[in-house]
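Quick one: structure for this chain?
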Amino acid sequence: MTQIINITQSKVISEQILKHVFRHRRLISDTEPCVHQPCSLCLAPHLDKVQYFVENNEPIHFILPAFPAKSPNTQKVLGTMPDMGEQVSLKFLQSLCDQISEIYAPGAKLTICSDGRVFSDLVGVTDENVTLYGQIILTLLKEMKADAIDVFNLEDMYTDLSFDQMRHKLVKLYGQSIEAIKDAVKNNEHQCQMFNGIHRFLVEDYQVLEAHKSRNKIRLECKARAYEVIQRSNAWSVLISELYPHSVRLSIHPQHYHSEKIGIHMIKTLDQWGTPWHNATVFDGKEFMLMKRSHLESMGATLVCQNGYPSHFAWTEQPLETHINVQEAIQ
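Got it. Here's what it folds into:
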C-alpha cells in the first residue's frame, strides 16, 4: 500500500535526507557555520528535487559525474584500472543510499554518469582504457551487490557514432563557446577555482607524459586544454540534467555552500580535490585515504596486491599525518 505523505511531511523528510548527505559535503572552504549546520540557503537548490521523489513515494535519485578513468600519470596512480580507491568509493555510495532508506523507506538510487569518454583525448587517456576501466567498474558493482547504483556513459546516448564524433556532437548540441568559458573563469571566483584545479591536474600529468617539453610550454598548452575540459564537462552536465531533470546533482569537485551541486567526499583525502583516479590509496591501520603514489613509495609504504594486481598501500607503524608535509603531498 502506497503511503500518503503531505507537503509538510515531505519537506521535513527531504530536509533530513539532505542534511544526512551534507555530512559528507566537499566544500571550497570550511570556515562558515554552514559546515556544521546547513542553513536554508544550503538546502534550497536541492529541496524541491528531493521533495519531488518523496511526494511520489519513489527512491531519491542522485546523479554523479565521476569514475572517468585513471590518470595517465604513474607518479600519482598504481595503474590504468580501478583499484582499492574505487572499491572504497563505490561502497560508500552504496552505503549512503542504504542509509537514506533508514530515513525514508523507498531509499535512494544513484546513477554514475561516467565522463571519461567526454574528455579522454584532452587528458591523455586512450578510449580503450576508458572502456576497460568502465567494464571493471560494472564488475565491481556486481560483485558488491551494489543494487542502488547504475552507470550511464556517452556511448549510451550516441550509439551509432565514433568516440570522436560523440564528443563533437556533445559540444555542438550542449557546449558553450570557449570565449564564454574564458569570460566565466575571468569574472566568477568559483569558475576560476575550478579552472585552476583542472589546469593543475593537467600540468602534473603532461609533465610526465611529455617530459621532453619545457614546463612553460606544458603550462600554456594545458591552459587551452583546461578550457576545453570545462567546456565538455559543462556540456555533459547540461545533457544529463536534460535526461534527469528531477535528480539531485552530486559532484566530486568541491562546491560553495549554496551551490546547485553537492560536492561529495567518497573517501578520505588530504585536500578537497583528491579522487581515486588521481591518487593511490593507503590503509593506515584504521582507514583508507588517498595520496600520490610517489609520496607513498618515498615514505616506504608497502604495496598490497589483490588477484595479482596492485590494489593499495599499507602503512601501520604510526599515523600517516606524522610522516608527511600535507602541502607537498597534494601539490
